[in-house]
Predict the 3D structure of the following.
Amino acid sequence: MGRGDLRVNDRFVIPAGELDITYVRAGGPGGQNVNKVASKAVVRFSLRDSGAFSLDAKTRALACLASRLTTEGELIVTSSLTRDQGRNREAALARLAALLAAAVTRPRKRNATKPSRSSVERRLDGKQRRGVTKRERRRPNDAD
């Protein structure tokens, strides 16, 4: 792992060359400082063109993050939480790593289970009691 590379999880590392980090003026905290200093960090990552992910992981990430991608397939993450450019950069990179880590993880396969006999009986008993309650609310001439 080179200097500036971003570790997504144990399997994937994004090379620093695939990340485009720029800074713009932020409208957040800072008073008059925000008019002078470009402290908001903007991280652009071209997910579609990246070689950091396997084909399976990239397909899963593209599907999961489709609403966040630009038409060119770029994922843009910003941070203007603090007045410090370096901390904003770290926060934006951490958010990008968290987004990608969540997107590339394979969902666990659900094992279908059968409800226990007692849980089925409890459910049916509750339905029976509810039906009796509703029947008792009826007017006497509406009885079956």
The helical segments are 55-64, 85-104, 117-137. The two ends are 77 Å apart (CA to CA). The CA atoms of residues 61 and 103 lie 5 Å apart. Strands lie at 6-7, 13-14, 19-24, 40-46, 74-79.
